[in-house]
Structures are given as C-alpha cells and as structure tokens.
Amino acid sequence: MNSKLSYTIEDHPPFALSLLLAIQHLLAAIGGIIAVPLVIGNVLKLPTEDTIVLVNAALLVSGIVTIIQCRGIGKIGIQLPAVMGTSFTFVAAALAIGFSDAGVGGILGSSLIASLVMIIGSFFMPYIRRFFPPVVTGTVVMMIGLSLIPVAVDWFAGGQVGDPNYATPQNLLMAIFVLTIVIILVQWGKGIFSVAAIVIGMLIGYITSLCLGWVDFSGVKAANIFAIPQPLHFGLSFPISGIIGMSIAYLVTIVESSGNFLALGEATNTEITPQHFKRGILAEGLGSALAAIMSTTAFSTFSQNIGIISLTGVASRYVVAITGALLVLAGLFPIFGALIVSIPLPVLGGAGIIMFAMIISAGIQMLNSVEKTRRNGLIIAIAIGGGLAVTTRPELLDKLPDFLKEVFGSGITVGALLALLLNQILPEE
C-alpha cells in the first residue's frame, strides 16, 4: 500500500490546489481520450467535421463518467479517483465495422447493444472477484505498468518509430529535463511543489518548448471556441457481426478494468471489495452506452492516471471529479482541448515515464506479500512473459483470425488471462 498519502480519498484540498492537481490528471489523460476518435476518424477517412464530433463527444462523456465514478450516483460509480476515457481495446472491432457497409452508425449501434455485456456482467463481479488472489492482482498491476512503458518511451522520443525526428538529441534532452524537474520536486519539494510535481514539470517544459519555437498552434487556430454536442449524429445500426466483435471487446475490458481497480486500490490505500468492482464496471458499461448515444466510442478506466496518484500521494476523489468537470468544458470548448494537445510529446514523455514506472513499482510491492513458492513464481513469470510478448511484438498475432486478435491484442489482457488460468490449473503446493 501507498503509506505516504498527502491527501486521502475523502480529503478536500484547497480549491486552488485542487484545480492545479486536477489539471495534472487532465494533462495525463486528454491525449489518450482524443487518440481513439482521431485514429478512427483518420483511418476511415471521415470528414473533418465528423472527426470533431467524435472528439468533442469523447471529451464530454469522459468528463461526465469520470464525475460519476468519483462521486457515485446511487449504486453506480466506484467512488474512487478514477479517470475515464475512450479505450483502444475497441479500435480493431470498430474499424472492422467501419469498413463494412454499416459505417460509423454500425460502430456506435454495435457498441450500444454490446455494452449490455458489461452492464449485466457488473452484477456478477462479486463472484468474479474470488479469482483475483494477490498473486494474480500483483501480476496484473505490474503488467499494466509494463504495457504503458512503450507509450511513454515514444512520447519521450517525440513520436513513433520511423518519424524523422524520433529520438533526436533535442527531444531526449527535453524529456530528461522534464523528468529531472519532476524527480527533484517529488523528492525534495514541499507542499504544492511536491504534490503538483508533474504539472509543474510539464509547465516548465512547455514554456521552454515555447521559447524554442517547438509548440504548434495550428490545432488551436483551427478549433472551434464552442461546440454543442450532437447525439445520434451518425445514426445507429446493428450489424450482428459487429455486436459480436464489440461484445468480445467488452469482455476484455472487464478484465483490464478489474486490474486497474486493483492498482487504484493499491495507490489509494483502499481495499477493493466486490461492491467496488460491481459499481465501477456498471459505471463503465452505462458510460459506454451513453458514449454511443452521444456519438463516440466506448470507455474504460485510464491506468496512466493511477501513476499520478502513486507518485504524488494525492488520492482525493474530489480532485479527480474536478478533472471530470474540466473534461466536460473541453468537450464544450474544443479550443481548450486543442491547447492541451499542443504540448510537445517529449514534455509528456518526461513525466509519463516516471508515472507509468510507479505502477510497476506498485505491482512489485503487491507481489512482495505473495508466498515465495515455485507455483507462484511460474504464474508471475509466464503471465508477465506472455503479456510482454504481445506488447513488444504485436506482429505475433498478425496471422491469427480477427477474433483471436481482438481477444489477445492487449498485453494487459494476455497477462491477466494467463495469471487467472494458471492460478486455477496449477496445483497448490
């Protein structure tokens, strides 16, 4: 457990500090939230205005569901500092539907019907929870961090492998500069300088990038100042094959989100009960249904923001609820989101590499409490090895049927499924 929390789940930091801390979560999440609609819009060659509809709706619904997860409505919402966003787990199924005659309406209709898998599944989470002993939970949490490291490395290097500016000395120096600032502030900073280390480090990196002429404001200039949400903009259709594909993606997301909830519990010093699982998964399912109606893709809990909690010791759900409010504003005022997206990738990478590594550290600490037996060692080794195989070499799945690629496309999912399976079939010593 994280024994050095500056603010616990129920704490209310002063508003000015809470706003700064909420912006810190926003900076970590917004790139991932808009990435999925941008990928779908670009690959399907949608008109610019349609892609903007997908992006605005993603930000707006992310904010709404984040607030529900943090604050809770009745028996909906995990009531922990969980940031919600569009999930890459659904991209493969979405593109397959999008390239068919069903189009974007088919993607959203399939997602709406298939969200029942998560909504109904949430009521069985108390039974599912017993399959997650410490050897499984620690392995899954560790795999979450390991799966995110390649994302942080690409940010650190300034793009994707093959880009002409990938890993240039300038990009690496900027990322190291931001990373150094964050480390100094976390280790030796006091008060606000410690708990807001990530946003301060990124702000200094952004100002430095601005002085160097690295910041591209073209997206800001092209963005609308205000945009009204457009429910059912693409209509809805319900192809059977699309519903099946999306249902599989939702099953995978249940496994991933269960791991994220466990990591969140570790970061916030909270024992995750079956009711936490039920409420959290239900909120995700209902949020994904709302996303389909509001014209964007399905949702899950963001693991990168768990790293911020582990690093800063700020577990207040009040703070993350403010992040949700900021996301709603970003959905209504696209220029706000465009300004955030203008942050150069090396600046994000300098902070991201340590945030995601903190999740790995949390997983290692959880595994420290596991009995050191040959059986447990096999479970940990094979699960992490299999998850990393898919993460580092996704080409392994290229020649498999689309169904299997959908199921095993995520290293987190592969690691979690292997840990769950081995824990059931290997005999106790």
From TrEMBL:
<dbReference type="Pfam" id="PF00860">
    <property type="entry name" value="Xan_ur_permease"/>
</dbReference>
<dbReference type="GO" id="GO:0005886">
    <property type="term" value="C:plasma membrane"/>
</dbReference>
<feature type="transmembrane region" description="Helical">
    <location>
        <begin position="52"/>
        <end position="68"/>
    </location>
</feature>
<protein>
    <submittedName>
        <fullName>Purine permease ygfU</fullName>
    </submittedName>
</protein>
<comment type="similarity">
    <text>Belongs to the nucleobase:cation symporter-2 (NCS2) (TC 2.A.40) family.</text>
</comment>
<keyword id="KW-0812">Transmembrane</keyword>
<feature type="transmembrane region" description="Helical">
    <location>
        <begin position="131"/>
        <end position="152"/>
    </location>
</feature>
<feature type="transmembrane region" description="Helical">
    <location>
        <begin position="318"/>
        <end position="341"/>
    </location>
</feature>
<dbReference type="InterPro" id="IPR006043">
    <property type="entry name" value="NCS2"/>
</dbReference>
<keyword id="KW-1003">Cell membrane</keyword>
<feature type="transmembrane region" description="Helical">
    <location>
        <begin position="195"/>
        <end position="215"/>
    </location>
</feature>
<dbReference type="GO" id="GO:0042907">
    <property type="term" value="F:xanthine transmembrane transporter activity"/>
</dbReference>
<feature type="transmembrane region" description="Helical">
    <location>
        <begin position="235"/>
        <end position="255"/>
    </location>
</feature>
<feature type="transmembrane region" description="Helical">
    <location>
        <begin position="80"/>
        <end position="99"/>
    </location>
</feature>
<keyword id="KW-1133">Transmembrane helix</keyword>
<feature type="transmembrane region" description="Helical">
    <location>
        <begin position="407"/>
        <end position="426"/>
    </location>
</feature>
<feature type="transmembrane region" description="Helical">
    <location>
        <begin position="376"/>
        <end position="392"/>
    </location>
</feature>
<feature type="transmembrane region" description="Helical">
    <location>
        <begin position="172"/>
        <end position="188"/>
    </location>
</feature>
<feature type="transmembrane region" description="Helical">
    <location>
        <begin position="15"/>
        <end position="40"/>
    </location>
</feature>
<feature type="transmembrane region" description="Helical">
    <location>
        <begin position="105"/>
        <end position="124"/>
    </location>
</feature>
<dbReference type="InterPro" id="IPR017588">
    <property type="entry name" value="UacT-like"/>
</dbReference>
<keyword id="KW-0813">Transport</keyword>
<feature type="transmembrane region" description="Helical">
    <location>
        <begin position="347"/>
        <end position="364"/>
    </location>
</feature>
<dbReference type="InterPro" id="IPR006042">
    <property type="entry name" value="Xan_ur_permease"/>
</dbReference>
<keyword id="KW-0472">Membrane</keyword>
